[in-house]
Design a protein that fits this description.
about 625 residues; Immunoglobulin-like; TIM Barrel; Oligo-1,6-glucosidase, domain 2; 4 domains; eight-stranded parallel β-sheet; 14 helices; 34 strands; globular
Length: about 625
């Protein structure tokens, strides 16, 4: 037993005695280690005003339920962001402990633990499970509002009405419509809440736009009539509120569609008040647009008027939707990594700080998340986004471990990694990405297995249901807010866009009901378990084919075991987590019981296991 594996701290629960309550409040930070650890002293290093401070820790009396030594340091919160790390003095020399782990060398500040003194915590997210819906493909509740073939043109080509169940046509993309609408979503709320168990919806754009995907917005203030219009939205929102379900919407502030009145006015008159919202190289037809797509002119946030209209003003778009009668619970910001960025103009952080101030002023517990397929850590420091769609920090490493190739290999990129990722590498990668984000933000990260922008879950694992079940297990037990893409509960297939936007199957006779029950059981556990909602995370075993980690609060332990293939491991070490011998765990799926002995918990051979101990 290597005592260094037992050294642990996390800015939550029993390790953070005293919730941060703003500047001037005091927190007591706790660290634990094995009783045989040769530690002679613990110190906490911080630099609240730029100059290093070292605070001496004190040894605590034993705490019931943990077989270990405890150290505690009391610290007043003097800054909005408290960066800190521990220094351990031992008979073997000194060690530093940061969020990235234990090191002999002095680490940089970037991996320090971080406490946010005045973080707007949306506590309703703790027990939330979201369901993402692409409205046109979910359910046709009122055929009277459907788009008719040839009724108008999109990018010079007539729109096409498709039959429900037909596969999307790659050559038609946003021109094809299936008739899904908000009335259909409202009609399926009993299925979503009672049968599946989700309590939050994330909808792709519903604002008026000529395409079926609606990212070419033509009005930020109206609901598209083909989705049912404003009235259908009010009825949906009212029905969701009666069920105590939350709703976040997709907004596209980076660009608008070429049919938006702002852009039409700017094209028609270079002196129009909205002309400054865009960047014309040669007026009227040469302008900056998103990824070179002329139908999506990019918005220019150098304009204070645009900032006022979009988010800063009292009656701005982003603030208005958060209050009655819309009363939504948050925003998902499309292409947040590209927002207000272009060449010499790099205003992304400034604009997102402004959006956060506006959103939190209007509704302090609103959820503000952004799309970002890359490193979003600079946006996730407590002053901008609450979360991102956690592709690179969660989903992509998981698939690399499960399938033996990096996500980029799906797109046949020459430089993509097509070699297996070990369990140790997966754990290291996840830990490395978490270390650059405050734990309060990690708890709010929007975790997903697929979306409207990626191939479907079942396609990503090559049709292997066992691997899909492992991915599902980890989604609901990893820190963050889980989200299911519509149809995944039936392993709806779909490759790259637009194939990943197939219509939902509502023929119950063809459903895999046992599979649906498996999803529902995990959703129920995730909503009920405090350990999964708020607990710390400690890795216990990471080898080639098996990954095991502990989620923990003072009241509950949840030990997760995930296997991507056969593995001789028959017991998980629990001594690093200070779990006393004789502690009884119950396995969630089988109801089998086992007790820890000699610092280990005997486990089953199955690929997915959740062991609970109260």
């Amino acid at each position: 037993m290597n005592w260094k594996e037992s050294v642990f701290h996390n800015p939550s629960g029993i390790y953070l005695a005293g919730e941060p309550r703003g500047l001037g409040s005091t927190v007591r930070l706790r660290l634990r280690c094995a009783q045989q650890a040769p530690i002679t002293g613990v110190y906490l290093r911080c630099a609240p005003d730029g100059e290093q401070e070292m605070h001496t820790g004190r040894a605590l009396d034993p705490i019931a339920g943990w077989d270990c030594c405890w150290w505690e340091v009391a610290l007043p919160l003097r800054n909005q962001r408290l960066h800190y790390r521990f220094y351990l003095s031992s008979h073997e020399g000194g060690y530093w402990l940061t969020a990235s782990g234990l090191t002999r060398f002095v680490p940089t500040d970037h991996t320090d633990f971080v406490i946010l003194a005045d973080q707007h915590i949306s506590h309703w997210l703790d027990h939330s499970v979201f369901y993402q819906i692409f409205p046109d493909r979910f359910c046709d509740g009122d055929s009277a509002s459907n788009v008719a073939s040839g009724s108008y043109k999109l990018s010079g080509q007539p729109v096409v009405a498709r039959r429900w169940g037909d596969l999307p046509n790659v050559h038609q993309g946003g021109r094809e419509f299936y008739g899904g609408d908000l009335q259909g979503i409202r009609q399926k709320l009993p299925y979503l809440q009672q049968l599946l168990g989700v309590n939050g919806l994330y909808l792709n754009p519903i604002n008026t736009a000529p395409s079926s995907h609606k990212y070419d917005v033509a009005s930020y203030t109206e609901v598209d009539p083909h989705l049912g219009g404003d009235q259908a939205f009010f009825e949906l929102k009212r029905a969701m509120e009666e069920r105590q379900m939350r709703l976040i919407l997709d907004i596209v502030p980076n660009h608008c569609g070429e049919e938006h009145p702002w852009f039409r006015q700017a094209q028609n008159d270079p002196q129009a008040e909205t002309a400054e919202f865009f960047s014309f190289e040669e007026h009227p037809h040469k302008y900056e647009c998103w990824l070179g797509i002329s139908s999506l002119p990019k918005l220019n946030y150098s304009s204070s008027k645009l900032r006022d209209w979009m988010y800063a003003g009292e009656n701005s778009i982003m603030r208005s939707w958060l209050r009655p009668p819309w009363n939504i619970d948050g925003w998902r910001i499309d292409v947040a990594n590209m927002l207000a960025r272009g060449g010499a103009v790099q205003m992304g952080h400034k604009i997102l700080r402004g959006m956060r101030r506006a959103v939190k002023t209007e509704k302090s517990d609103a959820y503000l998340l952004g799309e970002n397929f890359f490193d979003a850590s600079s946006y996730l420091q407590g002053d901008q986004l609450d979360a991102t769609m956690n592709y690179r920090g969660f989903m992509m490493p998981l698939y690399h471990w499960l399938t033996g190739q990096d996500y980029n290999a799906v797109f046949e990129r020459q430089w993509a990694d097509r070699y297996p990722l070990s369990g140790r590498d997966l754990e290291t990668q996840w830990r490395y990405w978490r270390a650059h984000v405050p734990w309060a933000i990690t708890r709010q990260q929007f975790n997903l297995l697929d979306s409207h922008d990626t191939p479907r879950l079942i396609n990503l694992v090559g049709g292997d249901r066992a691997k899909a079940a492992v991915a599902r297990l980890i989604l609901f037990t990893y820190p963050g807010v889980p989200c299911i893409y519509y149809g995944d509960e039936q392993y709806l297939e779909g490759g790259r866009d637009p194939d990943n936007r197939r219509t939902m199957n509502w023929d119950e006779s063809s459903w895999d009901h046992p599979l649906l029950l498996e999803w529902s059981q995990l959703i129920g556990l995730r909503k009920q378990s405090d350990a999964l909602a708020r607990g710390s995370l400690q890795s216990l075993y990471c080898e080639e084919n098996t990954l095991a980690y502990l989620r923990e609060t003072r009241e509950q332990r949840c030990l997760v075991v995930a296997r991507r293939g056969p593995d001789p491991c028959r017991a998980i070490p629990t001594w690093p987590a200070a779990v006393p011998d004789g502690t009884v765990f119950r396995e969630f799926f089988t109801q089998n019981q086992a007790a820890t002995q000699n610092g280990h918990l005997p486990i089953l051979e199955s690929a997915t296991q959740i062991w609970l101990s109260d």
